[in-house]
Amino acid sequence: MTVKASPLTTETEPSPPAAGMAPFVPQPASIEETGVELSLLADLTFRVIHFSGRPSGRQVAEQLALPYSITEEIITFLRQQQAVEIVGSAGIGEQGYQYALTDLGRRKAEEALARSQYVGPAPVPFQLYTEVLQRQSVREIRIDHETFVRELSHLVLNRKVLATLGPAVNSGRSILIYGGAGNGKTSIATAIGRMLPGEVLVPYAVEVQGQIVRVFDPRLHQQIAPTALAERRQEDAGTQTTGKERRRDRRWALTKRPVVSAGGELTLEDLELRYSPVSRFYIAPLQWKANSGLLIIDDFGRQLIQPQELLNRWIAPMEQGVDHLSLQSGETLELPFDILLIFSSNIPPGRLGDEAFFRRIRHKVEIPNPTLEDFLEILRRACAEYGVAYAEEGAQHLITAHYERPGRELKACHPRDLVELLIDVSRFYGEEPTLSPEPLDLVCSSYFVDLQAA
Length: 454
Hints:
Largest sheet: 5 strands, mixed
Strand content: 15-25%
Shape: elongated
Distance between the termini: 60 Å
Number of domains: 3
CATH superfamily of the largest domain: P-loop containing nucleotide triphosphate hydrolases
């Protein structure tokens, strides 16, 4: 069986986003509007009370990220089942009532823990997730030339690179950035992530066929400050056609577009749903967490798996915009593949694959070694950044003695590294760092390694 998304017709359908703003998803007004079965919400409430001791109704609602009216309805149901009881009060009003599990409730909680140990915000239904994803698609963003150049202005890149890279980013399709090591490929990819405009919604968890998949990752998703979120709630509340004030659904985190990076440690297992037999819920794979944003495969070709295997895994997602993930039950989940995918490699393309292989990656951008002019500009910038006086004599000595004579290639990373080493040496001798021949010779003897030596 394949789990697919279907169109939503409930009141929780997200409103179209304003420019640069995430879609507005109103908080549910009833259990039905959560899109999740009462039994799953009851299990989650059992676990929250079990781990919290004697939480108040307000605290339970905060942990579930649901309105108190819905939380009260769930608790009332559990009280009618004689599984939960009021044991005190932590404030004025019903929201301050404290709750504890009865003997029956503790048995029910153990059964709920046997099914899953997930505790946190209530999940959103998969159908709602796919609807929101469509409305904040990374494929719909456009970065103008001025913004593109400004965001890359800290790097010294030739015009050909900029002219090729800009359209590639705007296409929203896969990109291969290749070239020798140390010329800024990773820095370029990271800068592209920073220039992605707008805010997006990331669910804390998603419900699929009664199973919970945890999606939000605080290490990868840069959440927008709560104060900004509160303001957005008030602004959006006034846009509802019903005339009612509807706050934003707190089951979604408001974040910047995600930027996820994986290097040589990446394996095929990292691209599949990860199920823990202990916790009994799923963890979303990297490409799911990167949805609506950027996924960087750094050091492409240096993973434990062959490049062809990695690309074959993503041929269908890249071409069809849908990834297929397997659940423990054997069911297949059709997940929207809505990411800007960048492969970065310092391995020559001929060693990564053949023509058919590279046809799958729409845009190819080579980052060459810097020209002498560009190298010296990078050196000037590095000196200015670290407060080292730039000296033309020292720069020319560096080029002649340590690049031209030994036949060494210019690399974009060298100037910054050499200036940092120059500062280290000067501090040791208690001197002001200067771009002069003698200290540069000492720095270069420490920095460069003769790879041809026996």
